[in-house]
Amino acid sequence: MAGFQGAIFDVDGVLVDSPHEAAWRESLRELMEGEWSDVRGRTTWTPDAFTSHVYQTEVSGKPRLAGARAALEHFHVPDVDARVEAYAERKQAMVVRLIEAGRFTAYDDALRLVIDVKESGLLLAAASSSKNAHLLLRRIRLDRFAAEHGIDAPSVTPGATLLDVFDVDVSGRDFPHGKPHPDMFLAAAAELGVEPAAALVVEDAPAGVQAAKAGGMAAIGIARADDADLLARAGADVVVTSLDQVDRAALRSGRLARTAPAEGGR
Ligand SMILES: [Mg+2]
Questions:
Q1: Which residue among 12, 17, 154, 243 has the highest number of C-beta atoms inside a 10 angstrom radius?
Q2: Ligand 1 center to residue 257 CA distance, Å?
Q3: Strand pairing report for 16-17 and 105-106
Q4: If we measure between CA atoms, which residue out of 165, 243, 143 comes closest to residue 200?
């Protein structure tokens, strides 16, 4: 029987609109306007310079220290080695504050795909580089979402949070290499008991798509930031702008396809 047996979901940018991007941006602004203002003139940083594009291409999907280093190097901040931990710590404190304040939302299209995939009998893993992923996932009530949207899903039991529907959560573990290295996804597949070739990965970051393909897995790229081309170039088998476009019948038969044609008739 051909088909997918496991689905591995990135968290930030796929399942939730999490406050990481805001935390990276705001914590660097605090430093540049505060303790680090003496070196500000030697950098390319300005209050508007940390765009979503910079976040997507330099920081997203990387472990915390690697993300901090990439951002500081991007803005040519001097003495990166001496600053990287301070930046990473400030960002972490800020993101926890934002999560606890409820400053994030789950994506409806992602919750619908999670439920459909679960109902199809696939095993589910969460695989985020972030150590905060479980904080986000357990604050989202999947049973309420299903009830509010009239979704009949026996696998979503009363009281179930988004964290509860995942069979495995490898988020935030320290692996020798972060994405785009496939370590994390290979560990997720192994813990699900699924061969990489029978696993699909849902990712919003080019580095995550590269990690999935390097691990021999199928990859859905969800372009939430007008970056479909980057995801396609990273090797995604299918790129969508909403996870509702993932063809469910094809998925159940072990293929990835998009229901809606791409704009421009491609
Ligand atoms: Mg992501």
A1: 12
A2: 21
A3: antiparallel
A4: 243
Could you check whether the bond before residue 180 is cis, i.e. omega within 30 degrees of 0?
Answer: yes
**CATH numbers and ranges of domains, the chain:** 6-17+104-252 (3.40.50.1000), 20-100 (1.10.150)
Centre of ligand 1 to C-alpha 1, Å, is 31
CB 211 within 8 A of CB 179: yes
Span 67-118, pLDDT tens digits: 999 999 999 999 999 999 999 999 999 999 998 888 899 999 999 999 999 9
Reported as a single tens digit per residue, the pLDDT across 116-160 is 999 999 999 999 988 889 989 999 999 999 999 999 999 999 999
Whole-prediction pTM value? 0.82
Around ion ligand 1, residues with a beta carbon closer than 5 Å are 10, 12-13, 204-205
Instruction: Residue 167: count other Cβ atoms within 10 Å of its Cβ.
Output: 17
